[in-house]
Description:
two-stranded antiparallel ribbon; 285 residues; 10 helices; globular; alpha/beta; 8-stranded mixed β-sheet; 10 strands
Amino acid sequence: xxxxxxxxxxxxxxxxxxxxxxxxxxxxxxxxxxxxxxxxxxxxxxxxxxxxxxxxxxxxxxxxxxxxxxxxxxxxxxxxxxxxxxxxxxxxxxxxxxxxxxxxxxxxxxxxxxxxxxxxxxxxxxxxxxxxxxxxxxxxxxxxxxxxxxxxxxxxxxxxxxxxxxxxxxxxxxxxxxxxxxxxxxxxxxxxxxxxxxxxxxxxxxxxxxxxxxxxxxxxxxxxxxxxxxxxxxxxxxxxxxxxxxxxxxxxxxxxxxxxxxxxxxxxxxxxxxxxxxxxxxxxx
Length: 285
């Protein structure tokens, strides 16, 4: 279970979709003065050096964020995402990539709080180090738990301010993660019905993915948005990532229109063959 290292995949097409959506949600929550919590069930290391051996081994960022890096006049959802990543990089180059904890930390206000779960022993060591690099006041906003996020999530719900964003993004290397994700959303909504639950999952040729896609859209009577991006045709041998998806319960009302504008650009720019495509469905309540 400890074989997965996100540094191999930092900044790839899946990160582009996940983090662009997350940034939009955070920006929306910042429109109100009321504080909120962000809870990340599978936090990773927080920040990734794209020049180190882990990232260079696969260099997946070259078919992800790098393809958008110098494009002019991007839609707002993508322009905000690129601008945020630029803030961590000097002199216009792309050498550092922020994970979801870092994105949340940079956008949160003093009264907001960040709760991070990470079980991988190497990842949590780097996560702790990266958090400690922040100022004392910022670090006090963050709680890091060396614990399985699926089991730890419910202990944090509902958040004290009754406003919160929950990001659920396991590696799905273990096929049980699909079942655990559905359970986490179902049980989480029972304790925090108004929470914004953002689920990332990979597009791979597994029965569990097909089943989860159907179950997610039946999981709640609340509003939801479901966006999927395939960057290439599914592999004939049945193995390998060919895209990813985000399912957001209780999304900002602005998310659908932002995705309608951004997804055709992502389909075109991140395509790895002529079978790239996206889908966008939603339920309004």
